[in-house]
Amino acid sequence: MDIASANFENVGPFTRAWEWLKALAVKLWAMAVEFANKMKKLGQDDPRRIVHSLKVGVAITLVSLFYYVRQLFDRFGEDGIWAVLTVVLVFEFSVGATLGKGLNRMLATLSAGALAVGVDQVATLFDGTGQPIVLGILAFIISATVTFMRFFPALKARYDYGLMIFILTFCLVSVSSYQDDEVLEMAYERLYTIIICSFIAIIVCICVCPVWIGETLQNQIANNLEKLGNFLEGFGREYFRLSEEGHSTDDKSFLHGYKSVLSFEDKEETMANLARWELWHYRFGFRHPWNRYLKVGTLTRQCAYKLEDLKRYLKCFEIQATPTEFRKEIQVPCIQICSESGKALKELASAIKKMRRSTTVDGHIAKSKIAAEKLNSMLSNSLWENANLREIIPTAAVGLVLIDIVPCTEKIVVSFKELASRARFERMDDRVSPNNDV
Amino acid sequence: MDIASANFENVGPFTRAWEWLKALAVKLWAMAVEFANKMKKLGQDDPRRIVHSLKVGVAITLVSLFYYVRQLFDRFGEDGIWAVLTVVLVFEFSVGATLGKGLNRMLATLSAGALAVGVDQVATLFDGTGQPIVLGILAFIISATVTFMRFFPALKARYDYGLMIFILTFCLVSVSSYQDDEVLEMAYERLYTIIICSFIAIIVCICVCPVWIGETLQNQIANNLEKLGNFLEGFGREYFRLSEEGHSTDDKSFLHGYKSVLSFEDKEETMANLARWELWHYRFGFRHPWNRYLKVGTLTRQCAYKLEDLKRYLKCFEIQATPTEFRKEIQVPCIQICSESGKALKELASAIKKMRRSTTVDGHIAKSKIAAEKLNSMLSNSLWENANLREIIPTAAVGLVLIDIVPCTEKIVVSFKELASRARFERMDDRVSPNNDV
């Protein structure tokens, strides 16, 4: 705070207080402006966030209105609070997450309500102090068992919220049943309020600018492939330009794109789990093979690690230390591997985005394989006997990594083909390519 | 299902049905046994899971009993349901998560309740249809704004749950206020029920076998360092044994340990966020520098990527293709780098676990630096002029990666020292080392 550091020594107490207040106001205004700017940036980065906030507002207002006109539909009883609860808790950013939470909540409420009513019937067989003891023991057993089940990875991935709501509803209904005897009615009211309000949340989420997590995942996988493709194409040019001209292009954004690929694993799995709930999406439909996307994603990540190796060798002084004749010799196949593998990856990216098969990708892979063989045989002969080993190694190591990248790209192509056949991507074979410039 | 595939063609319908039922029973029994085994394994992997489940059971039973004896403390009113809700929602696996959720819930309820009561006073200025419209507009504005604030990374990390509860409580109190006029009393009741029940959850969580997320994070960081240390020590032996004997040791578990390090990033950040809530832990106390642990963790991960490079070169046929004299020459400094860096990392791991400074680590780093310099000068002279480049490169590349690992280890040591001074780790200088065998 620079408020305290201002020099007010030779003025009266009133002026001093006034100056201090002015400084404070300026400070507060600056903080408010900074906060507003951050808020603006957050909205500009992804405008869907603003839309989401408005959607939540609309859903909550709808439910509130529902409650205000309760006099008209007087069936909601005291459960208006549950309505608000359900909308706030169920409404998530993506359709998949909202559907998952909504369905989990409905199913868990239904099954736990039914179980609690059954338990209540058993407990009425006991009288006086016996009843709370039986109810307490049952609540303990069921909550402990279901809590433990939440640790199962398969259940945690898709039904974690449902299991929590199961414990909640069971305890709620069975605890209340001891006090008032209208258990059945209460369970029934709770169930239909939750169903109606989950549907309000789901419908607002789907109808007003929906964010489909499946689409987001598909785009992300495609964008990751594109980033790797851009890196490879750019790397080939950059490396041998550096070696000749000693300086490089200004725009190096392509060199950093791959880094975001490395940290996506957890998020991709979460997204695939949520995408499975989006059964009604017009492009994907039932049983879309989300697992195959994950496989493409994992192989993409393995390839990105190799690009990280490559990038380590992009140091100007090391490259220029390499003997020129050696560099010139391997330049052609190296650039060819980079550009062909890069084209293959970018072709896959556009094919995934358009959900069609690719006809040109096999050609790129074949060309890059030929270049890799050529490079391999060049590195194996001992033309450079008089060269300093330390000088040759960095460039030769780049060659070795590039040779490694070819089978890596091929694996991605194979897993893409599996995805394309499972997901019934459109075939392109029978169309006449518009690029046939004769 | 192999039930259908059994051959029942030449028997009567009764026998067939009987056989089918028997097969089904066997199948069901096998599934039940498999499920029980999975459950058992889950418990054996981490017995704290079983303890956690029992703790949740105890907390819920306690709250239920509280509600059963409501006749004695008849101040809970109709809010018994909130009690159960709070315990189920607040109770998490670790102390940090439970404290975070509990404090978030209490603070959010308090502030949102106060705001809602204020808004309610404003709304009473309007009559008839004006009141629900004003309430609706305010609910819309507040829920949309707070939902948008949940996208702020800084708020999302620690206060996401609180912001959700804020919307919830605000809407709940303001919606209910339109129907019954006891808003103040309702807000007050809700607040103290939530406070009491959050405390029940927090106390059970802390007093019965607590799982401190801070301890877990500390152990994880230390274990990751130890895994890298084991890998390095093992790699040095393994690589040159492979080259001489052509086969390797049976126990290769040390070679795979580092892999888990690569995928820990997201979890470490979440853990550090939760650990900040554990203000009362006797070992860490207030303002423990959790960020410093994250930095050590990030550098550990960078080092693990280099180990992945190393592992790629551990292919028998490639190593044996290297000319023997070259391999023999660089063997000594390579093994020295591996063993000294490995020792340094393992020393750091044990220092972090015991929360003390290390006196020996600088020695290991100095020795590994000397070895790296020796290796560097060996690779730079051109002794191996007649060697086949393709044959030499893999082993020389291993040398280059090892030279890279030394500054990487040094960075980890520097960040450990920063951590040690910030967290006031115990000094070891003034003690007489028991290992001084003269």
Automatic annotation (TrEMBL), chains A, B:
It holds the Pfam family ALMT. It comes from the Eukaryota. The chain crosses the membrane at residues 49-69, 81-100, 132-152, 159-179, 191-213. Keywords: Ion channel, Ion transport, Membrane, Transmembrane, Transmembrane helix, Transport. Belongs to the aromatic acid exporter (TC 2.A.85) family. Its main location: membrane. This is Aluminum-activated malate transporter. InterPro entries: ALMT. GO terms for cellular component: membrane. Coiled coil: none annotated. It is found in: Membrane. It is a multi-pass membrane protein. It comes from Carya illinoinensis. GO terms for biological process: malate transport; monoatomic ion transmembrane transport.
